[in-house]
TrEMBL record:
Its EC number is 3.1.1.116. It comes from the Eukaryota. PANTHER family: PROTEIN ABHD11 (PTHR46118:SF4). The gene is LOC117577222. GO terms for cellular component: mitochondrion. This is sn-1-specific diacylglycerol lipase ABHD11. It catalyses: a 1,3-diacyl-sn-glycerol + H2O = a 1-acyl-sn-glycerol + a fatty acid + H(+); 1,2-didecanoylglycerol + H2O = decanoylglycerol + decanoate + H(+); a 1,2-diacyl-sn-glycerol + H2O = a 2-acylglycerol + a fatty acid + H(+); 1-octadecanoyl-2-(5Z,8Z,11Z,14Z-eicosatetraenoyl)-sn-glycerol + H2O = 2-(5Z,8Z,11Z,14Z-eicosatetraenoyl)-glycerol + octadecanoate + H(+). It is an enzyme of class 3 (hydrolase). InterPro entries: AB_hydrolase_1 (IPR000073), AB_hydrolase_fold (IPR029058). Coiled coil: none annotated. GO terms for molecular function: carboxylic ester hydrolase activity. Belongs to the AB hydrolase superfamily. It comes from Drosophila albomicans. It holds the Pfam family Abhydrolase_1.
Length: 305
């Protein structure tokens, strides 16, 4: 595995992948720079495929830092946590669909000569890595998807497009003289009624940043997310039309307190991932934050050999 500058202790090292053209089917996709961190310990087995972790919508790899460290500490594989395009410290692009995110992951795997990976994706990242597993199965040794299927999403999630529309509108109204802290306080009232969950509200507010020029903008790219909303959130299963099932071992970690993983959605999931095991945790959508110990145990157990 060609990932340079490991140290003997558990580390998080940040790199980027230069944008390149990646062929996906009959289309050529321009991949983007993807920021990432590597977590490993001396006992990590570098000959085993590493775990490639991709976060959910509006999040970033930093939201997974603690869990990534625990997986690397307790398990046998290195963990590579990436910032998806249009998120975190990765490059922005007007294209944002699972197909584009999967192409970024495939280019990353090839660039670092990883051969194969264990796919670990939450929500949006889960659908991106589903697409990778279904279109490039030779790259994915096994897969873990967190509270996401190819099936219909809950209505309240589909209505989240209003949040990204508001992000585009409100950023232009923040006085340039404000500090970042003042700017974040300024925008809170615009999102209070749109974002019901306190943790989700914090994620949105902390996406705001202030550039060197003094302007405010977003770490995530709300316009790009809206550009890809139909394919990513509403018609995702249609994008899988004609693809054969992924035959590798697959773990679905589902949250009991959400409607992302319904019985109907599990049936849909089984069509694409027939070697499926489903585990439920007593949690809301961000399972890794609410049930970190049980989550880490499931991932470590699933990736032992």
């Amino acid at each position: 595995m060609v990932l340079k500058h490991f140290t003997r202790n558990l580390v998080a090292l940040r790199f980027t992948v230069l944008g390149r053209s990646y062929s996906s089917g009959d289309q050529s996709i321009q991949t983007v720079k993807m920021d990432y961190a590597v977590y490993k310990l001396p006992h990590s087995q570098l000959k085993q495929p590493p775990i490639l972790l991709m976060h959910g919508l509006s999040a970033s790899r930093t939201n997974w830092r603690r869990v990534s460290r625990k997986i690397a500490k307790r398990g046998s594989r290195p963990v590579i946590a990436v910032d998806a395009r249009n998120h975190g410290k990765s490059a922005h692009s007007p294209q944002h669909t699972p197909k584009h995110l999967a192409a970024d992951a495939a280019a990353f795997i090839k660039s670092h000569k990883l051969n194969r990976i264990v796919a670990l994706g939450h929500s949006m990242g889960g659908r991106a890595l589903m697409t990778l597993a279904l279109t490039q199965p030779e790259m994915v040794e096994r897969a873990i998807f967190v509270d996401i299927t190819p099936g219909r999403l809950p209505d309240e999630i589909l209505n989240m497009s209003n949040i990204f529309k508001t992000m585009i509108e409100v950023v232009e109204t923040i006085p340039k003289k404000f500090t970042l802290s003042e700017g974040r306080k300024f925008i809170v009232p615009s999102f209070i009624k749109l974002v019901k969950n306190d943790l989700d509200l914090i994620l949105v507010i902390h996406n705001l940043r202030k550039t060197e020029s003094g302007d405010f903008d977003w770490r995530s790219n709300p316009q790009a997310i809206l550009n890809g909303w139909q394919e990513t959130m509403i018609d995702y299963e249609k994008t899988l039309s004609g693809l054969g099932p992924y035959q590798g071992e697959t773990l679905l970690i589902a949250a009991l307190k959400t409607k992302f993983v319904t019985s109907d959605n599990v049936k849909i999931m089984n069509r694409y991932f027939p070697n499926l095991r489903v585990e439920y945790l007593d949690s809301e959508h961000k399972v890794h934050m609410e049930q970190p110990e049980k989550f880490v145990n499931l991932v470590v157990d699933f990736t032992k050999s």
